[in-house]
Amino acid sequence: MDVVLRFGGVDKSDDDPDPWVTKVHKGTVRRVLTYFRPHIGKVALFVLVAALEALIVVATPLLLKELIDEGIVKNDVGVVVLMACITAGLAFVAAALALVSGYISGKIGEGITYDLRVQALEHVRRLPIAFFTRTQTGILVGRLHSELIMAQQHFTGLLMAATGVVMVVVVLAELIYLSWLVALITLVLIPIFLVPWIRVGRVIQKRSVAQMDANTGLGGLLQERFNVQGAMLSKLFGRPAEEMAEFKERSGKIREIGVSLSVWGRTAFVMMALMASLATALVYGIGGGLVLAGAFQLGTLVAIATLLSRLFGPITQLSGMQELAQTVVVSFSRVFELLDLKPLIRERPDAVDLEKNKAPDIEFENVRFRYPTADEVSLASLEHLRTERERGEVSPDVLRDVSFHVRAGTLTALVGPSGAGKSTITHLVSRLYDPNSGTVRVGGHDLRDLTFESLRDTVGVVSQDAYLFHDTIRENLLYARPTATEEELVEACKGAQIWDLIESLPLGLDTVSGDRGYRMSGGEKQRLAIARLLLKAPSIVVLDEATAHLDSESEAAVQRALKTALRDRTSMVIAHRLSTIREADQILVIDGGGVRESGTHDSLLAAGGLYAELYRTQFANPDRDAPKPELEEAEVEEPEPAIQYMGFGG
Length: 650
Ligand SMILES: Nc1ncnc2c1ncn2[C@@H]1O[C@H](COP(=O)(O)OP(=O)(O)OP(=O)(O)O)[C@@H](O)[C@H]1O
Fold this sequence. Notes:
Blueprint: E1 3-6, E2 21-24, H1 28-34, H2 40-72, H3 77-126, H4 129-134, H5 137-144, H6 146-178, H7 180-226, H8 228-237, H9 240-292, H10 298-319, H11 321-339, E3 362-369, H12 374-377, E4 399-406, E5 411-415, H13 422-429, E6 437-442, E7 445-446, H14 452-458, E8 459-462, H15 473-478, H16 486-495, H17 499-504, H18 522-536, E9 540-544, H19 552-566, E10 570-574, H20 578-583, E11 586-591, E12 594-599, H21 601-607, H22 610-619
Parallel strand pairs: 5-10, 5-11, 8-9, 9-10
Antiparallel strand pairs: 1-2, 3-4, 3-6, 6-7, 11-12
Helix pairs in contact: 2-3, 2-6, 2-10, 3-6, 3-11, 6-7, 6-10, 6-11, 7-8, 7-9, 7-10, 9-10, 16-18, 18-19, 21-22
Bound molecules: adenosine-5'-triphosphate.
Adenosine-5'-triphosphate binds next to helix 13.
């Protein structure tokens, strides 16, 4: 049976959609244990060291007993000195063993967490883009990073607590050996002390989870509001008073929980000290009476008192062990549920490589496609806002029976209204998604028969808003081809019409770009992305032309860059510029998820269909939003229509 647990091990709940709730499947504990296998040697060593530590702990009271009964009482200085020296020596050995066991438990805990983290990162890296479009970045990062750190801490805590088991058993055995009566009284009294202690522990754990929740919530909010786009939106639309009130409210909550945690933490400490003092008083009270009655010797009494003081630490550790273990299982489960998410797009074991350096053709045959449901690609716990209703909801087909052929080495322009399915078609070419039925072929191969690597090498994509890592321009370019030489970098930048700009920067290629670096304009960013594409030199280019209005100079520069980028390659361009549309060997007019018309600019105009209609609508309104004619387009006789920004999507 599956159990629903909250991260942190408290507050079981069946219907709470909150992301800290996780299903712990049957067999999880066994699965967690499999992670111990590679560390079994270290685990054995850890148990051995723990046993040695326990033996030293119980040996000390016996030495004290000898020291008192045989040394002090019998007036034998030799025994006193010898026992004191052995006790001091054992203290050193115990300290060394404690350090060794801390080191080994750290190695085991960190080792297992490392294995799990690497496995999870490798798995998430292979998940399809649909997963990333659905999940909330902050929560995913939290799951892969901070939660794992916490899991590791709990895990190491659990290993340390496990040594407590050995200690309690050995100490109790010695207590029985020394005085069965005192041992019996201790066993009866321990639960009385322990009950309030466990209650306080629960409160602390509950508050810790609440603190984690509150911190994650504030962290997510800050991440959303303080990234460049968020900060911009908030500056333009934000209501500073309300926003500040929300920050204050969340920070206030963290403060309140923090204060209460500190009070409860202190309470636990005080309770522990009180418990130890009361137990000592009790032992000396009862034991003193027994010594006076001649039931046992003074040394035995001191040994029992010393032993008891060693018992409380391990016992309190053990009392929290069950919840600690539960938390560990839950935190592992949270990674397991990620690992169990099967990637929708997988490489076949018998996948073949696509022939390199030869521009292949592209063919869509009766392609039907709908975007996957939430349950198919993601986890509810990674989507803060996903409602239960949405989980299995199937979205309608976005592409219906799409068939077309892009001949090798030619340019196909995709045009059509916004939401028609143009981007979706390009997503299928780079296999970001697989069609639900029908086939997408490249170079005569079904995409599903090709290796990921050869497809990645073959298809190059330039999106509208090119993404740059926060790194130097050089590193951003080398991402496409790490082995590129300086000359090749410069050549690519020149081809992409961005070299003049880079050269004018004081640090040139070493200028840091990206979110927190040199801010490039939309056109500059796209040209840099084109330079990246030129370095990659793919034989298929998929391009989404920028819809942002560029000034005539950038417009012309982008156009020239595109000419270089598309030369001798098979290209599919979501076209927003008339010049691209005109140059296309084929125009596909996409509407309502299907290819409504296809042909060249002239033939489609002559046919007088949707393309002609859209063209004329815009042509009749040339001033509207139209960019200035490009340098290369200046010689075109008919006036430039604004078609690129209106009827043709984006
Ligand atoms: N990840 C997604 N999940 C679900 N539906 C999606 C997703 N992405 C796009 N859609 C839907 O698929 C349809 C086609 O979108 P697509 O982005 O392909 O249109 P488009 O023609 O490129 O539009 P535009 O020109 O505005 O970019 C739209 O209705 C859109 O809402």
